[in-house]
Automatic annotation (TrEMBL):
Domain of life: Bacteria
PANTHER family recorded: AMINO ACID TRANSPORTER YUIF-RELATED
Source organism of this protein record: Solibacillus isronensis B3W22
Protein name: Na+/H+ antiporter family protein
Entry GO CC: plasma membrane
Amino acid sequence: MNAVLIAVGVMLILSLLRINVVLSLTVGAIIGGLAGGLNITETIKAFVDGLGGGATIALSYALLGGFALAISRTGIPEVLVKAILKIVQNEGDTQKKGAAKALIFLVLLAMAIMSQNLIPVHIAFIPLIVPPMIKIMNMLQIDRRLIACILTFGLVMPYMFIPAGFGLIYQGIIVDQMALAGLDVALGDVPKAMAIVALGMAVGLVGAFVAYRKPRQYENVELETTNDLNKEVNKLHIIFAAVALVTSIAVQVMTDSMIVGSIAGIIILYITGTLKVKEADAVLSDGMRMMAFVGFVMISANGFSAVINATGDVELLVSGAMDIFNGNVSIAVLIMLIVGLIVTMGIGSSFATIPIIAAIFVPIAMELGLSELAIICLIGTAGVLGDAGSPASDSTLGPTAGLNVDGQHNHIWDTCVPTFLFYNIPQIIFGWIAVVFFL
């Protein structure tokens, strides 16, 4: 058995058995390293060496959580929640309930999409906006699995199709890594190649609306973010909070650092008195604690990725599969897409998957006679496959962090499994169709 398959398989099985994701990643990495021919010392060293790569991400998310909770105390989320509550004041009015549901869906979808390009803050908006909406979602009996699918769609689809923000970064990685592998392509061709796959994700989103349309009951748990909705909001604090948000986003874009951006926003809240000094430590600590799980998973995922790379079994996995289906282009493309899914499911990052697979896939695809657009689509789809559905991906960790504030939303069964079913399966089907179409 290939070490990559063993490592990812162990991690996924343990996660599905509700074993903590950090522990699942660690155990999967160790077993995969041993299966790949590394001894226990080499495996542990590779894992530990890889952990450092996730430190920046973990600190970014910790400060992001602190900033998000500080912003939530200013009243901005309450203003939004009150606006939606006005629509659903009459609980017996079905039409108002429908309008409120549609508004929640549209607001969250728009924010998720814009978080990748127009306002590139990624998952920063989720802990800020989603927790205050939980009370309304419970009132409307919205299935949170649908919200997870909406958020993940907005976090994944834009970067693989829209050449702006994170999309420009992802598509630039595709072009750069393909060039290193011996094939120069134009950046402008990436959206063309990925259009059919993006359509597949849209089909998956429609499927999620159908599957999770029925009401679902949740216990009403009083949350700190929602129990002060009747309190008068300080308009000056709202203005300062808006300034802090704009400053944070601007600094993040200019410095390309979520850490610096979050610190800039927190400083604005301090200077303006919006964040009281005597309350600041508790607020920031609570916010960091809220995002700590995401940070630890990302750190562990980097160690997992380092072990997989150290075994060298990704290339063996591809070559072994190609030997079995030698000469059949359609089956070979399908196998490469599945390999991309397996790799990304394990390391949790499409951006990190591209360098791993491009060096292997590009020469094979050229040998198979695929066109440039077909190869771009193959690399781009194989990279994005697994971002939705991976226990270690911030595209699933982010939604869970917002939806599980009251302990009623399971990361694996309520976020990862639904997003895997409704996005990875359509991506494989539409990706395979697109590559064959571009042949």
